[in-house]
Amino acid sequence: MAIRPVLIAPDPRLKTVSTPVEKVDGEVRKLIDDMLESMYAADGIGLAAVQVGVPKRIIVMDLAQKEGKNEPRVFVNPVITWASEELVTFEEGCLSVPEIWDEVERPAHIRAEYLDRDGKKQVLKADGLLATCLQHEMDHLEGVLFIDHLSRLKRSMALKKLAKAKKLKETA
Ligand code: GNR
Ligand code: NI
């Protein structure tokens, strides 16, 4: 297993639309394991493959990791089959948009279909943090970041803050 570095916005690779996985084989499982290790190392609760520079439709997640438990979840080729009209607002952050948190409104309840780590088809009904996080990760598969859901002013402030942090890092 290996920790892979997470791409930081405005890296253009984060805007790539990811392509479906044709077969969940050993190579894909190795990528999944690297993604889980990279997510845990970065203290995130989710990670899309494109965030480590691989534009494939793969997501890993562990919503329990803050509690020191291990409940890894894997979603390959996920599709949202239904989303509620009811919306909910969550304060979101992103490993690719460090140190920026803001409220995003999304459907409160969703149904999804995906392949698991064994390539087996699964269906899921989700709400709460799971629904929000899955939608956040599925946005990554379309090249969309949570700051793209904010007002233009807030998005440009976030991008300015990222550019400033990058500059500081380069001169450090
Ligand atoms: O670690 C993460 N926390 C988080 C909090 C609220 C809503 C979404 C997330 S996902 C984020 C990790 C990440 O960037 N995944 O793409
Ligand atoms: Ni993210």
In a nutshell, what does this entry contain?
This protein has 172 residues and is α+β, with helices and mostly antiparallel strands.
Which descriptors apply to this entry?
29% helix, binds ligand GNR, globular, Peptide Deformylase, binds nickel (II) ion, alpha+beta, 172 residues, 3 helices
What's the topology here?
Blueprint: H1 26-41, E1 46-48, E2 58-61, E3 73-83, E4 87-94, E5 97-107, E6 109-115, E7 121-127, H2 128-141, H3 152-171
Antiparallel strand pairs: 1-2, 2-3, 3-6, 4-5, 6-7
The protein binds ligand GNR and nickel (II) ion.
Please describe what this structure looks like:
- This protein is of the alpha+beta class and 172 residues long.
- The protein has a single domain, classed as Peptide Deformylase (Alpha-Beta Complex).
- 29% of the residues lie in helices and 30% in strands.
- It has three helices and seven strands, in the order H-E-E-E-E-E-E-E-H-H.
- The strands form two sheets. It has a five-stranded antiparallel beta sheet. It has a two-stranded antiparallel sheet with strand order 4-5.
- A hairpin with a 5-residue loop joins strand 6 and strand 7 (121-127).
- The mean pLDDT is 96.
- Nickel (II) ion binds at residues 94-96, 136, 140.
Number of H- or I-type helical stretches: 3
Write the element-wise H/E pattern from the N-terminal end onward.
HEEEEEEEHH
Please state roughly what percent of the residues sit in beta strands, choosing from under 5%, 5-15%, 15-25%, 25-35%, 35-45% or over 45%. Answer: 25-35%
Total domain units: 1
* CATH C-level class: Alpha Beta
**Given the C-alpha coordinates, what overall shape results?**
globular
Average the pLDDT over all residues and give the rounded result: 96
Bound molecules: ligand GNR, nickel (II) ion
Q: State the distance separating the first and last CA atoms.
A: 30 Å
